Automatic annotation (TrEMBL):
Transmembrane segments: none annotated. This is tRNA-(Ms[2]io[6]A)-hydroxylase. It comes from Sphingobacterium tenebrionis. InterPro entries: Ferritin-like, Ferritin-like_SF, tRNA-Hydrxlase_MiaE. The lineage of its organism: Bacteria, Pseudomonadati, Bacteroidota, Sphingobacteriia, Sphingobacteriales.
Length: 193
């Protein structure tokens, strides 16, 4: 369904589970950044009432997820660490087109968000199916469903609001780029690492 070119090796879940404090901290900050991204899209495109409505709901949901992860961190006696630099997201941001029309930049920002949500969904699936911690396995299964809904929301808005971008062609370019990029990741206890 997600169209990802390369799936995560299930052994990555063992890496993540070997340092739950680290993966949970990274996950918390990913949720915060996802909320910030939705808010940025709203502030840059307030004329699209349905987008404002849907992305407000996503921003709130992402912050609820942030809170949930923080609560898990606290309940397990961990401490929320500092925000991590997400090199994967940085590489995706570099791929996004910024030098074309305003519409092209808008569409690419939506596709950028869809790409991150798709990979997060896939990683949450790997965690839900491959970690021994049943509480976290259930938690990540529930988040996987949420991320899949976010992915389709961003992709559908890109298709709806494109005026000069062949969205399906550009999405294929995103999938191809991410398929190459992700080959360098999957060895660290980061959601995208």
């Amino acid at each position: 369904m997600l169209g990802l070119k390369l799936l995560t090796d299930p052994r990555w879940a063992n890496i993540a589970e070997s340092n739950l404090s680290e993966i949970l901290t990274d996950h918390a900050w990913c949720e915060q950044k996802a909320a910030s991204n939705a808010i940025t899209l709203i502030t840059q495109n307030p004329e699209f009432e349905d987008l404002v409505h849907e992305l407000t709901a996503i921003a709130i949901e992402e912050m609820e997820h942030f809170k949930m992860v923080i609560e898990i961190i606290k309940a397990r006696g961990y401490t929320l660490g500092r925000e991590r630099k997400d090199d994967y997201v940085g590489q995706l941001m570099k791929f996004a087109k910024k030098d074309g029309s305003r519409n092209m930049a808008f569409i690419d920002r939506l596709l950028f968000a869809a790409m991150i949500e798709a990979r997060s969904c896939e990683r949450f699936r790997v965690l839900s199916k491959n970690i021994e911690d049943q509480e976290l396995a259930t938690f990540y299964h529930d988040l996987m469903v949420s991320e899949a809904n976010h992915y389709t929301t961003f992709l559908n808005f890109a298709r709806k609001y494109s005026t000069d971008v062949d969205v399906d062609k550009r999405w294929k370019e995103w999938l191809d780029f991410e398929g190459e990029l992700i080959q360098s990741y999957g060895t660290k206890e980061y959601i995208h690492g």
